[in-house]
Amino acid sequence: MSVNPKKFSILWQRIKYLKSGNFHGVSGNWLSKNSTGIYSSIDVFADFDPANFELDSRDLVRGKQTFKKISKLKSGLNFSSNFDCEEGLACFLYAYILKRRPVVVIETGVANGITTNVIMKALENTRGTLHSFDVESQSKNVYQGLGSWTFHLLSGNLQKEFRKVVAQIGHVDLWIHDSDHGYSWQSYEYRLAQESLSTTGLLVSDDIDSSTAWGLCKELFIESYAIFDKRKFFGIAKLAKENRNPSEK
User: Fold this and answer.
1) Rg for the chain (alpha carbons), in Å?
2) pLDDT (mean) for 140-156
3) Could you identify which of 25, 95, 170, 215 might form a hypothetical disulfide with 59, taking C-beta atoms 3.0 to 4.6 angstroms apart as the criterion?
């Protein structure tokens, strides 16, 4: 029996999609339909403040300045600059940490350490702790400051080892995903984050347009937002709504 090459090609593409995710990415329209809201920049998001974060605009500016300084020092240090975060994500994390003062933060994906150092610059002021996870040992020395930072090198059965260490850490206030952006790992990590975050915890994920995993956040979280950076989207998902005084903005 002969096999139709075209049908075989389509079948193989679907198998790869189910296994690894949609590496061709999703559209802004898809993100809009699968998020509570979508915004063209972090500045627009902060102006509308749909999540009631009440971020300080001065902290956003300082976050951008911090990102630029760290990028000059760290970009391309261990890996290609393609692994670096972008300005919008960096300044949001900086401003959010200074405003909300999370005690325990988890970050997955370290690479050149740009996000790590931006986070730590904020945590040095709030005295929070960052746990960073990666599968590459080159990233173990990206932060040299005096803040509370622990690097975890994952190997072997990654999901099993990751879950074990997260359980040892205990409650988490802020979870930042920037590691494997395939559907399989991304969806696994979103679920683990939802299980591990404190009641008022927040999930932040870079590259949410890389697979359809972000759609899970509509089920796992009460609110989710997509924000465009320089060349990709990052996402924010909240476990609980916050009440705002009617007399306020």
Assistant:
1) 18
2) 96
3) 95
